[in-house]
Amino acid sequence: MITRNYPIFCLFSFFLSSLAFGEDSKEAPSFDRKDLVGHYVGSNDDLTVSIELDHFIYKFFNFEDFVTIESFDKGEMGHWEINDSTIEFDDPKHVLNIREDGTLLYGESDIILKPVGPNFLGVLFHFNDSIKSDQHTAHYGSDGNILIQKDFSEGVELTFTDDALHLHNLGYMYESGSQYMGGRSEGMSGMTDQVLDDESRERLIDHAKAYEYYSKAAGKGYVPSMFNMAVYHEEGIHVEKNIVKAVELYRKAAEMGHTLSEESLGNYLYSGAEGVPVDKEQAIKYWRSAASKGSREALHNLGHSIFTDPEFSDEQWAEAFSLFWRSALRGYPKSFYSLHNMMLVSDFEWDDKIAKNAMFFLLKAAYLRDPDALEFVKKYR
Fold first, then answer.
1. Are 262 and 290 in contact (CB under 8 A)?
2. 161 belongs to a structural domain
3. Residue 36: CB partners within 8 Å, gap ≥ 6?
4. How many of the other CB atoms lie within 10 Å of CB of 381?
């Protein structure tokens, strides 16, 4: 690979000089960029598109049917600019026209894009899986977004009994301070009724009872309870901190195809810990399984393991870039920063498009509070 000796401070200065988001020699746009930020979906008989206009980047998806891991992974990203009454992307085949009332129209057939919430695609993805089987769960990320990943192999949990599920949800009630209503008649959204008052919520939290119910559910084979118990041992919540016990539980759940457990187990095996020997081959095996189901952290960690190998080949470089890309599509901060780094050392033909995308990926990572990106921006600000 060819290393770009492009001065970082020059690149950052270039960006700052055009922070008005484009148009060096054009008049100010008629529409304010911040007012257009959001998620949009539109369709006609032949095409369904989803576009996210972020503060720094866009994400574009094209779906022929339901959202799947494979179709989501084909999403496009890059920078976007306003040019009079159009939104232009760095891929010229995508153009949005802006009506005077602010309505967005996509493509030659003028597909009307309607604003939707940030979890719209996540809901579609898990709705599709729930049709196939009612033995299905969907987890939220720490940022409040529904993860577009399968939580188990084939997206289906191992068979469990209703009493195991109720025990797990009782554990969740005591862990989170929510009021469990019981039953499955209202579907996943009716399982718990969140207590909004913080003081009331704090009174409901009881980690000893949470661990007790998780343990009972795990004893009946409910895998998410095994994972939650592992987190308790990993962080020393209620029980004494015990990484070996946590890894033991992660391994048990991972062997049952639980994605988050595969991800966590891979992390420990790759770096090792007291009482946990390094086994990078096994770590990568678990990461690959989790990544195939859409785990954004596993995708990133696989890419990082390749990119940090000083002897990687061109084919491996392309694989790492793809892994970071798929992880970034899922909003993982570290992967935006990794894409920025890969663009700086790539053998791409350096041009304005590459420069802008490198900077916008950096700023997206910083916006998502990635510590390395924040330090980089701080150093060259």
1. yes
2. no
3. 53, 82, 87, 98, 102, 104
4. 7
Name the pairing type of β-strands 95-98 and 86-89. Answer: antiparallel
Point out the domain boundary residue: 149, 174, 200. 149
Q: Which pLDDT belongs to residue 135?
A: 54
How far is 255 from 249, CA to CA, in rounded Å?
10
In a domain, 177, yes or no: no
Q: Lowest-confidence range among 43-47, 189-193, 341-345? A: 189-193
pLDDT confidence of residue 186: 45
- Mean pLDDT over residues 69-80, rounded? 95
Mean pLDDT of 352-374: 93
| Averaged pLDDT, 197-208 | 81
- The chain-wide mean pLDDT, for the chain, equals 84
Query: What pLDDT sits at residue 320?
Result: 95
| Cα Rg, the chain, nearest whole Å | 23
88 CB burial (10 A radius; 0-12, 13-18, 19+): middle
Counting the structural domains of the chain, the total is: 2
Q: Is 198 helix (H, G, I), strand (E, B) or coil?
A: helix
**Residue 171 belongs to some domain of the structure:** no
Question: In the prediction, which pLDDT does 245 show?
Answer: 97
Q: How big is the CA angle at 112 (ends 108 and 115), to the nearest 5 degrees?
A: 140
Distances (CA, A) of 287 to 51, 207, 307: 29, 30, 15
Residue 107 φ then ψ, to 5°:
75, 180
Query: What number is the average pLDDT over the span 325-354?
Result: 88
Q: Which tokens sit at 119?
A: 């979890």
Same structural domain for residues 89 and 15? no
Where in the sequence is the domain holding 65, given as residue range(s)?
31-149
Q: Tell whether 21 and 87 lie within a shared domain.
A: no
Q: How many whole angstroms from its chain centre is CA 294?
A: 9
Sequence-ordered list of residues with C-beta below 8 angstroms from that of 22, at least 6 positions apart, any chain: 81, 82, 83
Whose tokens are 């084909």? That residue is 74
- Give the CATH number, domain containing residue 305: 1.25.40
Q: Mean pLDDT over residues 309-324, rounded?
A: 91
**Band of residue 108 on the pLDDT scale cut at 50, 70, 90:** confident
